[in-house]
Specification:
Layout: H1 7-17, E1 27-28, H2 32-36, H3 42-52, E2 67-68, H4 70-73, H5 76-79, H6 82-85, H7 90-106, E3 122-123, H8 132-136, H9 144-150, E4 154-155, H10 157-179, H11 182-194, H12 200-204, H13 213-233, H14 240-264, H15 278-301, H16 305-333, H17 335-339, H18 350-362, H19 365-368, H20 377-387, E5 390-391, E6 394-395, H21 401-407, H22 419-436, H23 438-466
Helix pairs in contact: 1-23, 7-21, 10-20, 10-21, 14-15, 15-16, 22-23
């Protein structure tokens, strides 16, 4: 197992150890199509914005947009071999996503045109944001009488498609791992039992003392007790039985997700499978993947396992504290934008809004997701995803269907102007540099990717507090051609962008 996404990080740590560095610039370009639509009719501007816009959150699909904003591009495609990112996986999914999301919206499937093209919020039938506070009250308990008056919540077509493909991907994950990677799994388990591994990095680590199994058991007990305190004292309405089921469900799914991420460098969002208790189930999977990835970094860098364990523990505690402080500051200062269905090119609450939308809609599962409900396709797609191990006569062992499913809704809610740039970066890195400049590729490719990632993260942290208002009053850059005073920064100004 390689953990491709860790290679830039490993290269950076190695280069820092030998006092070698790299830096970068960040800049953006905007799409020429949007400039061409400035004097078109409002309907045409809306279409151009939906298809070509993408510099702002949930603005549009960002088709052919070019951006040099490394915050979103990242070194992912610099890490993955071209076959894994291209012909059999993500590129196919992205191409399908452009077509399918456009078809859903302009065919008015699920009444899509009554709502924004892209959003994770929930809406009333008239297109306004759903009044969930009235329906659920201050105690977060469903009031059936009020629900009948207000009506059921509605989701955008893109959000429904995203939930459908997520379930397809989960089903495909199970099917692919069992049908095609079963022998590999059996061999891995056999090696684990016998204490033998063919991995040279693993063999080189045998000179160090392994972190005791009891260290992990003690950490598990502490975490379990902490979770109990939260659910029993935090007014979560989650019972002890449900808490245990959530942990067991997450533990069951973890090996499948871990295998996919370790081998392909990309993961599947499995939280759709466990919406009743995402925090406890899906976070087990996410944390396990992060833990294993860090341990793999330790193998690559030959860090003693016990030192790595203590470093991870300290980093988790410190990171949780820092993240909490930063989150509180941002939520207080940018609350209105975070509640907006669209967001801006700086702030967006789309992830938290998706959690909220899921909590509300799944509390009405019978009405929305049950047989006869408008979104019955969402749960049934889990079974559909498990079905296909062949496409006609073609065995799809080398075509990773769960990844294609996942990427076919990649553009459903995000800043989409960087997708084309990410693909170009992958082609330049893994095709041109790897084939025509192999020496440069071996020496600098992963170091450059890691340096760009680290530099972008540091700059975003500084800009968020110094310029973008994470701690209070924003200090915006002066307006100029690349930073217009009104509208979207890529000049795709349909859907009322100039009026916001």
């Amino acid at each position: 197992m390689v953990y491709w996404g860790n290679l830039p990080t490993v290269s950076i740590f190695q280069s820092l150890h030998y006092d070698t560095g790299a830096n970068h610039k960040r800049m953006k370009l905007f799409c020429v199509f949007c400039l061409a639509s400035q004097h078109a009719s409002p309907h045409v501007r809306d279409i151009f914005t939906n298809i070509f816009g993408g510099a702002d959150g949930n603005e549009g699909l960002g088709l052919l947009s070019i951006s040099l904003d490394w915050q979103y591009i990242t070194s992912t495609y610099m890490s993955l071999p071209l076959l894994q990112q291209g012909l059999t996986n993500s590129w196919i999914g992205v191409a399908l996503c452009y077509v399918i999301l456009s078809a859903i919206y302009y065919s008015n499937a699920w009444n899509s045109q009554d709502f924004p093209m892209l959003s994770t919020s929930i809406f009333s039938s008239n297109g306004s944001v759903y009044d969930q506070a009235t329906v659920f009250g201050t105690t977060f308990q469903l009031n059936q009488t009020v629900l009948e008056e207000v009506g059921l919540p509605h989701m955008t077509g893109s959000n429904i498609w995203a939930k459908t493909t997520t379930n397809l991907a989960i089903g495909g994950l199970f099917a692919h791992c069992i049908c095609f990677w079963g022998p590999y799994l059996r061999e891995t388990l056999k090696n684990a039992r016998t204490g033998m591994q063919p991995d040279p990095h693993w063999k080189a680590m045998q000179k160090y003392k392994e972190a005791s199994f009891w260290w992990y058991i003690c950490l598990l007990i502490i975490s379990f007790i902490s979770g109990l305190i939260v659910i029993l004292k935090g007014q979560t309405t989650l019972s002890l039985y449900s808490f245990i089921v959530a942990l067991l469900l997450g533990s069951f799914v973890t090996p499948f997700s871990q295998l996919l991420f370790a081998r392909l460098g990309t993961g599947i969002s499995t939280n759709q499978l466990m919406k009743m208790f995402t925090m406890w189930s899906h976070d087990i999977i996410a944390q396990s993947i992060a833990l294993a990835g860090d341990l793999k970094i330790g193998q690559y860098l030959k860090i003693p396992p016990r030192a790595m364990f203590l470093t991870q523990l300290w980093g988790t505690i410190l990171g949780a504290a820092i993240n909490f402080v930063v989150m509180v500051s941002i939520v207080k200062s940018q609350r209105a934008i975070l509640l907006s269905p669209n967001g801006t090119n700086v702030w967006s609450g789309q992830l938290v809004q998706s959690f909220n939308s899921d909590a509300v809609t799944w509390s009405l599962a019978k009405e929305l997701y049950g047989p006869g409900g408008p979104y019955f396709i969402v749960p049934i797609s889990l079974l559909i995803g498990m079905r296909w191990s062949k496409i006609g006569p073609i065995k799809v062992d080398n075509v990773i269907l769960p990844v294609i499913y996942m990427y076919s809704s990649l553009l459903a809610s995000r800043v989409n102007s960087t997708v084309t740039s990410s693909i170009i970066v992958g082609i330049v890195s893994q095709f041109w540099l790897r084939n025509y400049h192999p020496s440069w590729f071996r020496k600098y490719n992963y170091i450059l990717g890691g340096a760009l990632d680290g530099g972008a993260q540091i700059m975003i942290f500084i800009l968020s507090f110094a310029v973008f208002g994470a701690s209070g009053t924003p200090r915006p850059f002066p307006p100029w051609a690349g930073n217009p005073a009104k509208g979207n920064v890529d000049y795709c100004n349909g859907n009322g962008a100039l009026n916001r």
